Each structure stands twice: as C-alpha cells, then as structure tokens.
Amino acid sequence: MTRGLYGATRKAAGSVDRWLRRVNAETAAPPEEAPEPEEPPVSRDLLDLLRHLGVALIRSGETTNRVQDMLDDLARRYDADEVHFFVLPTGVFVRVQDSRGSAVDLLEANSDTLRLDQIAALYRLIDDIKAHVPPPAQATTALARILTSPQPTPVWRLLLGNVVLTVGLGLMLNPTSNALLGYLVLGLVVQLLLMAADRWRLLSTGLPVVAGAVVTLLSFGFPNALGGGNPSQLLIPSVSSMLPGSALTNGSIELATGSMVAGASRTIYGFNKLLLLAFGILIGLQLLGSLPPVKPPSAGGLGWWAPVLGVLLIGLGHSWRASAPKRSLGWLLIVLYAAFCGQQLGQQLHGGGLLGSFLGGMIAVPVAYLVQRSKDAPPTQVVFLPAFWMLVPGGMGLTGVSELVTKNDPNGLHVIVNAVLTVLAIAMGVLVGSGLVSSTRRPRLEHLVEDWLGPETGRHAAGGRAAAAVIEAETQRTTGSSEPGSASQSSQ
C-alpha cells in the first residue's frame, strides 16, 4: 500500500509540474528577437577601383553595355552584389544599396582615348583581378600606373606613323602616284598639329577646324605639286586621324541595342566633329577665293596591289602612332586583312560599298576572337580598334558638305547620306559578328571554334570578347527579354 501511495504521489507531482510550466509559458513575455546582423559596408577601396576601371574601359573604346557587364562581373568577384552601375560615355555612376538605404557616386570620364599599349595592360590587369582577386587598393595602384605611364614611342616615330597611315589610306581610296607627295606632306602637317594641340588647350578645342582649314589651304593652294591637279583626293586621307569613326560606330550599336542616352550622345559627338572638319574645309576654300581648275581624276592607278599595300601601311602607321604593344603588329594585320577581304567581297557581289562595309565589320569580330586565343596575341580590343580606321570612310562626306555649301551641288547631300549609311552598315556588321561569338542560347561560331581548336588557350579571358560590342544581355534586351539586375541597363 505504501508503494502504491508513493507512485500516485509522484504522478500527481509530475502533473502539477507540467501544468505550472504550461502556465508560465503562456503568461511569460515573449523573448526579444535577436537583431539581424548588420550588413558589412562595401569597401571604399573597392568602389574606387570599380569606378576607375569603368572610366578606363570607356576610354579604351568599349561600348557602355559592355563596360557595365564587365563591372558587374568584377563586383561579383569581390562578393559585392549590392553594387550596381550606370555607364555613360562621359562617366560611370555607382549605386550601393543595402538594408540601410542606398548611395550614388559618379566618376567623370574624359574623351581622351588610351594608347594601344595602355589598353593591353588594362585587360591584363582585369585578367589578373579575375584570376587572383587582389586587394582593391593594390589593383587601383596598378591601374594608376597604367593610366599615367609615359609615352613609349619617340616623337619621330609618331610623326612617321601618321605619315604612313595617311599614305596607306590614300592608296586604298585614291591609288594614284601623283598624290603620294601630298599624302606625305599633309600627314606630317596633321601630326604636328595633333602634337601641338596636346600642349596648347586652345588649339585642342578648335583642332578639327584648324586641321580642316590647313589641309584645304595646302591641297588647293598647291594642287599640281601635291595632288596632281586633283586636290580633293587629298582631303580624306589627310584628316583620317581625326575622324570619329569609333564614336559613330559605337553610338550606332548602342542605339540599336536600346542604350538611347549613350548612343545618342556618341552619335551627336561624332557628327559634331565631322561638321567641325567640314567647317574648316569651308574656311580654307573661302580664304583661297577663286579656285584653280580641277583636273579630272586620272584613269590609270597604281594597280591592284596598291590597296593591298595600303592595308599593310595602315597597320604599320596605326601601330606606331598609337603605341601598339610589342609583337602585336602581325595579329593586327590579320584582322585588318580579314576586314579588307570582307569589304572587297561585298563590293564584288554588286552590293556596293555598303555591303562591303557590313561584311568587313561582321568578319572582323570573329577573326579578332580567334586571334586572341593565342598566348602571344594581345587583347581583342587592341587588334580590333584599328579596323575602324580602315572600315569607316565616313570622312568622305566632308567633301560633300563643302560642295553642298559652296556650290549647291545635290551630289554633296548624296555623299553625306552615303557616309551615314556606311557607318550604320559597319555598326550592324559588328553587331551581327558580336552575336556570332557571344550568344550562349544556341550553337554559334564560338562553339564551333571550341570544337575545332580545343579548350581555351588564350591569356585574355577578360578581354577575349572585348571586340564583341554587344554581349548576351544586349541580345536579350533587343528581343524583349530581361534578367534580374538589368534594370539599370534598360534605363539607358
């Protein structure tokens, strides 16, 4: 009986204990929730690095869409997904957003283009960042050394480079022997003006007008000595180093892919520079007063080999005046000759200059992609940029502008329209070529190349598709689809 009483007592005590615990749980105040851990702020050094990299990429000739995607990728490498970018040709906006709010910062970009050796070093730095993710301050210091590096090319080679470039373009556009002296003289004069503009800011502001006027005065003032009686053939090759071919082409690409602000600003800048050059030509013509009679163009040229030699001279001249990296000339010439063959093929197919410009731009992109696969090749942007100097004969519209103003010649308007269509043809060619090597939705040229050549062997993974001005995000935007995080791109 005692044992039964003891068991009943324990059972009753357990029930009471459970009841008391339940009452305490119901009446007690709920425990305070622990505050969520505060998100770590984005490093100031990282923001500085990303801003300066964006500005450097703009100055290397990249489109704003491409720059934005490269910056997004670099931010993810540093686990900074809360950083977003809005890129324009004149600056880079950086927005940092977290649970505490958001902040926006801006770094302005100037219009000076980087040298080819600086572009190559920039893409090598991006490769290193992607491979090793160094401290941001260390990468920023390396970038500053690249941007402030002294000119490696001596003055005499800069002068010779522009002379050779002018002669090469002259052999492509007007392969006549009586104009060679004019190309030599005017190429030297224009390069001297460019070097003087680097020292005097006032001359730099009005350089297109001054150069157009000086070239016109020399060409039409000494028509027989320099131009063989046809001075108009000297104008375009002489001012080629100041033609905004890259700005017009990139602007057309950005407009076609929905980046309206960036594309419109580039296009307006390019056409404004063309108009300034045309204004300089008009001033030169008015200063001369009555012009001597112009002989018709000579029927016989230098032969089929002249344009082929001209491409070689364009590569040499551009590599010298733009300080191309060592051992890059051969790769640069491969892309130039590929674009030249595409241009000639389009002209032979009865498509005229427009089809030739389209094919030249389309072929240059995949060839530049193939070139960068070699371990010894420079980044694609280095070998692709000179193609603009050969493919964009948009400056041919300058003569049309002057004739339209001075003579009311309706053909002048036709030349202007043809120049605009040429730029659009090149832009569309680059757009199509970019789609061939950058799309991942279905088998394209890139996948065929991988099957033919094996796994990636190049050193420039970051810049391997730099010549592809439009990447997959742009293709998605043009087809109406979007991905998370693309709002800042579509806002352009």
Automatic annotation (TrEMBL):
Coiled coil: none annotated. Keywords: Membrane, Transmembrane, Transmembrane helix. It is a multi-pass membrane protein. GO terms for cellular component: membrane. InterPro entries: ThrE-like_N (IPR010619), ThrE/Ser_Exporter (IPR051361), ThrE_2 (IPR024528). Its main location: membrane. It is found in: Membrane. The chain crosses the membrane at residues 155-173, 179-197, 202-222, 242-262, 274-292, 298-317, 329-346, 352-371, 383-401, 413-437. GO terms for molecular function: transmembrane transporter activity. Residues 50-287 form the Threonine/serine exporter-like N-terminal domain. Residues 480-492 have a biased composition (Low complexity). Residues 317-432 form the Threonine/Serine exporter ThrE domain. Residues 473-492 are annotated as: Disordered. Belongs to the ThrE exporter (TC 2.A.79) family. This is Threonine/serine exporter family protein.
